[in-house]
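Backbone-to-sequence.
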């Protein structure tokens, strides 16, 4: 019996590895799994629709919903989640000793619509009295000059954005004091090199993120999995087939991560850190679906709308293929 052949572009994750290795196969589907850097996957999917299925930035996906019809349909599968307090860096001479000091400053970001940026702007506004429009933004390449927004944006006048000067990178501009701060998913090269001119806004990142979890109860969602709409419309069944397989692959990763016979990753205290994460966040700390993630999704969608990236406030149910949110009961 013939099976549907689909290409799935995604990062190299423990939670999707079983699909990459073929030990878990979606019902009725043969997958070609392409392990690509997230920036490349997002760019190629958003600009050229190259893959039938792909990992995608949650923000980019919500931006795409303004198109009619929207080009993608998402599954409530969160290939990337991360507390993002570690993503905020400052120039040591900018006079920023606390998050509240960011008001009135110039903040670099590779793209305004990056999911990490949406989360941090929202958190700064909600918890540190730094509204998103109280700072100015500079966009451009972090380590290589010339990066542009992947998706066309229609932002309100209250969002003040300029482009980095030609040939300049945000990492160099931060180190040299041309921008006061940098909000970025990737650690900037001056910080990696130990440059004393660059430091984090939150020196105790883990403490700040645990405090945020204790207060808000949200583990931020970064990426979802999307199906190209033409594929979804022709084969509606692929949504649940892929969702079930991705769920099984994640569950397998849960099990193998807690195998203490030998460390799966090069992290000396992996086991106690895993046990602490389970104690703080719950055993299903990397949950899929809508209901267990409603607070995170609603917070993100509110931030996205408030920051001018979505024309209306979406609800979590509107984001996802209904076939992936309802299952038959046996």
């Amino acid at each position: 019996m013939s099976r549907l052949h689909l290409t799935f572009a995604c990062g190299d994750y423990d939670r999707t590895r079983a699909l990459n290795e073929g030990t878990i196969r979606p019902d009725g589907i043969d997958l070609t799994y392409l392990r690509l850097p997230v920036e490349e996957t997002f760019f190629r999917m958003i600009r050229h629709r190259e893959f039938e299925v792909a990992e995608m930035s949650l923000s980019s996906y919500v931006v795409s919903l303004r198109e009619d019809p929207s080009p993608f349909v998402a599954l409530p599968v969160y290939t990337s989640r991360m507390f993002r307090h570690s993503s905020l860096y400052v120039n040591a001479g900018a006079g920023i000793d606390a998050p509240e000091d960011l008001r009135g400053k110039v903040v670099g970001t590779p793209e305004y619509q990056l999911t990490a940026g949406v989360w941090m702007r929202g958190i700064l506004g909600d918890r540190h009295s730094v509204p998103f429009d109280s700072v100015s933004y500079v966009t451009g390449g972090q380590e290589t000059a010339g990066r542009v927004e992947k998706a066309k944006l229609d932002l309100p006048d209250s969002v003040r954005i300029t482009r980095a000067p030609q040939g300049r990178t945000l990492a160099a501009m931060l180190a040299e004091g041309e921008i006061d701060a940098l909000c970025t998913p990737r650690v900037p090269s001056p910080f990696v090199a130990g440059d004393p001119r660059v430091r984090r806004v939150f020196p105790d990142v883990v403490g700040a993120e645990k405090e945020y979890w204790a207060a808000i109860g949200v583990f931020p969602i970064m990426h979802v999995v999307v199906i190209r709409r033409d594929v979804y419309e022709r084969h509606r069944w692929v949504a649940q087939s892929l969702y079930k397989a991705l769920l099984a692959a994640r569950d397998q990763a849960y099990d193998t991560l807690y195998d203490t016979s030998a460390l799966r990753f090069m992290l000396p205290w992996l086991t106690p850190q895993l046990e602490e994460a389970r104690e703080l966040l719950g055993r299903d700390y990397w949950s899929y679906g809508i209901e267990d993630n409603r607070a995170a999704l609603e917070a993100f969608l509110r931030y996205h709308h408030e920051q001018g990236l979505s024309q209306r406030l979406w609800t979590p149910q509107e984001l996802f293929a209904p076939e992936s949110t309802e299952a038959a009961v046996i």
